[in-house]
Amino acid sequence: MLEDKNPQRTPLSELGEFKLINHLTQHFKLEQDSSIKGVGDDAAVLRFKDTNVVVSTDMLVEGVHFDLSYMPLKHLGYKAIVVNLSDIYAMNAKATQVTVSIAVSNRFPVEALEELYDGISTAAKLYNVDVVGGDTTSSTSGLIISVTAIGTVDNEKVVLRSGAQPNDLLVVTGDIGGAYMGLQVLEREKEVFKVNPGNQPDLSMYTYIIERQLKPEARKDVIELLEQLEVKPTCMIDISDGLSSEIIHLCKQSEVGIDLYENKIPLDTQVISTCEEFNIDSTTIALNGGEDYELLMTIAQRDFDKIKGNPNLTVIGYVTEKEKGMHLVTRADERIPIIAKGWNALKNQP
Amino acid sequence: MLEDKNPQRTPLSELGEFKLINHLTQHFKLEQDSSIKGVGDDAAVLRFKDTNVVVSTDMLVEGVHFDLSYMPLKHLGYKAIVVNLSDIYAMNAKATQVTVSIAVSNRFPVEALEELYDGISTAAKLYNVDVVGGDTTSSTSGLIISVTAIGTVDNEKVVLRSGAQPNDLLVVTGDIGGAYMGLQVLEREKEVFKVNPGNQPDLSMYTYIIERQLKPEARKDVIELLEQLEVKPTCMIDISDGLSSEIIHLCKQSEVGIDLYENKIPLDTQVISTCEEFNIDSTTIALNGGEDYELLMTIAQRDFDKIKGNPNLTVIGYVTEKEKGMHLVTRADERIPIIAKGWNALKNQP
């Protein structure tokens, strides 16, 4: 009925997720006085009178971001909230509200949605945010969850991705790579289960990394810690797609380079042992495995004494001049360029 | 791998969309000082210092809310913004920003998404809102668009669904039923096209109602008009699901009854003629056809002189005591109870 007026066809996979969103949104100008920061950071920053409101939104799609064969719905609801709050914290802001929209096929009974909302409610309580709105609709297949998180931050406290300066320290919270290795274990057990449904797997060796995958936490505690320590990072981002991908974002937006030290990257012992078991290099996992929801930040050298020895904060590298580029400095003291291999939603599509 | 621990199964269709969202969100308490109004109105109201921020979110799902065989992507992008802004205006607020998340299968080329974003951009410019964030991800099937709209409103201007008082006038903007009849024409032409793809239909008789379906507008102009007229409605809602459904929302939340006069309902001549052609009762369409995105409001009697004769505003009934219930007063002066037959996303599912 409607003819195709545009016979040109560029496959989505040619651009990938980040280039695609850049490509689509590059012409959007900010016209409102209240729009301080639009697309391109963890969250948008709006300023109404004296208040900075930060807004972030994320969509989780069944078969792309989660697999209900090993992801309990309660955990999924919890995770959907956490991944959005993580973006708010990455602005050095306080999360206050969320809205939740779901599209669901009617293969789900009401009780399944109750479980999902139980997880949403549990996360909202723990992180002290209110669920203030949402939309429920049907989908022709699968479950889609879209969450928008809202927070506030004082003017002088906003931390963007663009503030890193040469000589700043590169700091990461917690440890990384766990969520990805937890996913590998769950995927393996799913295959085992297909062959032998009666098998009761012993997953006690993997409890930490499985929890990292199924029930990640956002680093609200770190934002509070930074305030106590009186440290304002010069830039910050949350690690959703993998360390290398986030480093590239920071360097591009701050127009700096980075030296990342392989021997400083914090890895849990379960990540190391599971990498050995799977015969995968743990540094590769730390660089490219996503979904840890830790925070990656840069801080001024003068703040080093304030964070020194804190178990939540690990210095993993240094900011350099842009011309020096982005490198991993290996244990053998080789310098390897950091390239994006992070999880790419559009290429991984079945 | 994970056992079903809850063998109870209540089909989603048993509850329907509104009951479902109520059921799922009824236990959410508002704990944040900044959360003024949560789930249950057109938008949430948040108060940060002296600023009221209103937030609304909606999800559009291919095969449920739109059919790409007759909905051009540019129009779809435009409509996705408009339906969300409509919720902001229904709070008597000024819309300022939107975030847009899309999930898309890779059957769509980049050029298709460009068209979609072209529509988004066109609407954003026309309504003077900024696109400040979003997420792009893949879907295993179809296109899903989730938009969150943000606005501001002065404290004394917020209009909720709960403020109607007996003797208030029931007022509707524009005319209604057009979007639904436009959809009927488009569905018919789609069937004709299947049989005879060479057919070039003459749709000139239906331009207004087809535009109402494919390119609806939100009543930003009415919010500005009300301000000029110095009229603050006692309650307001936008008409997305049909007049009867919205009247029921207003009456429940305001704890009032309503008498709606059949002979006052504003219908465009194309709605009347197309209803005759399709042999459908036009009042039924006005009551139950959705997607007009007009505003339904109640205003105090003392404001009647201010709106009298304005072509944008039609008085269609009166607010009564709750005990009197909700009725359509027909041309034959019969009183027929108003019941919800509005578009129900979860029951219409294929």
From TrEMBL, chains A, B:
Record: residues binding Mg(2+) 5: 241
Alphabetized NCBIfam families for the sequence: thiL
Protein name, UniProt field: Thiamine-monophosphate kinase
E.C. numbers: 2.7.4.16
Role description: Catalyzes the ATP-dependent phosphorylation of thiamine-monophosphate (TMP) to form thiamine-pyrophosphate (TPP), the active form of vitamin B1.
Ranges where the PurM-like N-terminal domain occurs: 40-153
Residues in PurM-like C-terminal domain copies: 165-324
Positions annotated to bind Mg(2+) 4: 42, 56, 87
GO molecular function per UniProt: thiamine-phosphate kinase activity
Positions that bind Mg(2+) 2: 58, 87
Matching PANTHER family: THIAMINE-MONOPHOSPHATE KINASE
Binding-site positions, substrate: 65, 291, 343
Swiss-Prot/TrEMBL keywords: ATP-binding, Kinase, Magnesium, Metal-binding, Nucleotide-binding, Thiamine biosynthesis, Transferase
Enzyme class: transferase
Underlying gene: thiL
Miscellaneous note of the record: Reaction mechanism of ThiL seems to utilize a direct, inline transfer of the gamma-phosphate of ATP to TMP rather than a phosphorylated enzyme intermediate.
Residues that bind Mg(2+) 1: 57-58, 135
Pathway in which this enzyme or protein is active: Cofactor biosynthesis; thiamine diphosphate biosynthesis; thiamine diphosphate from thiamine phosphate: step 1/1
Record-linked InterPro entries: PurM-like_C_dom, PurM-like_C_sf, PurM-like_N, PurM-like_N_sf, ThiL-like
Family annotation (Pfam families): AIRS, AIRS_C
Family under the similarity heading: Belongs to the thiamine-monophosphate kinase family.
Binding locations of ATP: 117, 134-135, 161, 240
Catalysed transformations (reactions): thiamine phosphate + ATP = thiamine diphosphate + ADP
Record organism: Winogradskyella pelagia
Keyword Nucleus: no
Binding site residues for Mg(2+) 3: 42, 87, 238
